[in-house]
Amino acid sequence: MDKQPNARSNPALQDAFPPGRDAALARLAGFLPRAGRAYAARRNHDLPGHRDVSRLSPYIRHRVLTEEEVLRAAVKRHGPDAAAKFIDEVFWRTYWKGWLEMRPSVWSDYCRGLDRALDRVAAEAGLRRLWEAACEGRTGIDGFDSWAQELTGTGYLHNHARMWFASIWVFTLRLPWELGADFFLRHLLDGDAASNTCSWRWVAGLHTPGKTYLARRENISAFTAGRFSPAGLAREAPPPASFVPASRVALPAGDVLNPGPGQGLLLTEEDLSPGWLFDAGLSPVATATLAVTAARSPLAVAELVGEFTTAVISDTVARHALHLGPVSQVFTTDDVVRWAIGERLSEVVLAHVPVGPVADATKGLATALTDHGIRLTRLVRPYDAAAWPHATLGFFRFRDAIPELIRHCLEAEAD
After folding, report:
1. Would you say residue 3 lies in a domain?
2. By CB atoms within 10 Å of each CB, which of 38, 277, 315, 401 scores lowest?
3. pLDDT band at residue 413, thresholds of 50, 70 and 90?
4. Average pLDDT score over residue span 141-167
């Protein structure tokens, strides 16, 4: 456990994704003029520079910018109809989050499947060579190799390219989908357990019965302006032999905040806009930051991912310094307990941590704190509480609730 360090400055990040809220707001402002009909017309084009898409996902993933802020800005600029496609893309992330919150076994199954796939990589030389070639961009498949190298070099990949890449990985190279999902999660600055795992499952035919996604040469050529035209791709994307729907559990209800003395804030990489907690009455006497990017994979996570996460956490601490009290950095559940005891806290408050690596890393925290007479209070952001209950089936059913959710966002700002 250490005091909060200064953020490192990586030239690659500064060029592509400058960490921090100021950079995120500037990117949002620069993109907004194109968030309406221009986005709808051009969003699927994977072209150098990615000017046709927002490139806001690394900031939204860590809630340096919140979904509500981005949605309100798009609606105010273009109206809900002209901005409908962009609004849908923001809500896809919300949908996946809510869907996985109600089906946590999908994440557990993925983790077990990844362990089995890595055991195969260790035991099967042919599989290991193919997997390494795919990760390093040495397959000889036009486009695929460039996307692998772009991902590892920048921490980002266009959404349409992600779909093509995943389809080629699963159906042309016939590699386990869990290895591909892990490759993305190790390198994406916006790597998120829900969006990443569920999107790979959707491509592989594990999300919607009978539905898979097949990458086609003509489609790739058309939407990359002829930059890539891969030959030899799979002609079929057969669904799994059996389909087992994931069992559903109740959404987390969240706790109630009762402002009082001795409260500390635990700030995680999942929600770096803590203003809503202060508005609810939290006035922490001390704050600890928890970043566990290494827990995203059993393998080494890309340095860019760790550096971006560290930098946006440090930016959050600097922006909210007057509200946080003394700030420490913690790495494990034991660290959190030692910090809470050392600061003489009666309660630790944190924004709800969704299903994924951070939730896994903090499992057992409530019990560990209770053993020392310290409460753990987990608060669900109102946006999530409003949206997640609609993620019961497919996205198109979820979409029916979007007008109501947009009204909720606009009303929340008015309040």
Report:
1. no
2. 38
3. confident
4. 98
